[in-house]
Amino acid sequence: VQLQASGGGLVRAGGSLRLSCAASGRTVSSFGMGWFRQAPGKEREFVTNINLSGMRTTYSDSVKGRFTISRDNAKNTLYLQMNSLKSEDTAVYYCAADRRGPDTYVYWGQGTLVTVSS
């Protein structure tokens, strides 16, 4: 499975961005999927995940109420809608597929940079 994340960019604080993660190679409809991020000089951290059907989601406290994860299994694509962005959301965002544990995934995308200016 190859994961291609896109949609990152420069946005002002308070703005919105929508990230996409397109999967190829095989369908990801049978995989739990998630988003992680890594800010400059920091460890990678969990952002959110979603189960196979899209009916169950989990968010980190830092993004809860501002970010929304979703998936379109027909398009083999994962999304992350990010609203009310803050400067501390600046990071490289990674999508992941085939969840085996809290932070354990088999497949990872290459990352897309989100920069929030204050």
Looking at this protein, list some descriptive labels:
118 residues; mainly beta
Question: How is the secondary structure organized here?
Answer:
Layout: E1 2-6, E2 9-12, E3 17-24, E4 33-38, E5 45-50, E6 57-59, E7 67-72, E8 77-82, E9 91-101, E10 104-108, E11 112-117
Parallel strand pairs: 2-11
Antiparallel strand pairs: 1-3, 3-8, 4-5, 4-9, 5-6, 7-8, 9-10, 9-11
What does the model show?
Strands 2, 4, 5, 6, 9, 10 and 11 form a seven-stranded mixed sheet that branches. This protein has strands at residues 2-6, 9-12, 17-24, 33-38, 45-50, 57-59, 67-72, 77-82, 91-101, 104-108, 112-117. A hairpin with a 6-residue loop joins β4 and β5 (45-50). The protein is 0% helix and 56% strand. With 118 residues, it is mostly beta strands. The protein is globular and about 40 Å long.
Low-pLDDT residue spans: none
What spatial form do the alpha-carbon principal axes imply?
globular
Compute the separation of the termini in Å.
37 Å
The H-and-E topology, N to C, reads as EEEEEEEEEEE
Biggest sheet architecture: 7 strands, mixed
In short:
This protein is an all-beta fold.
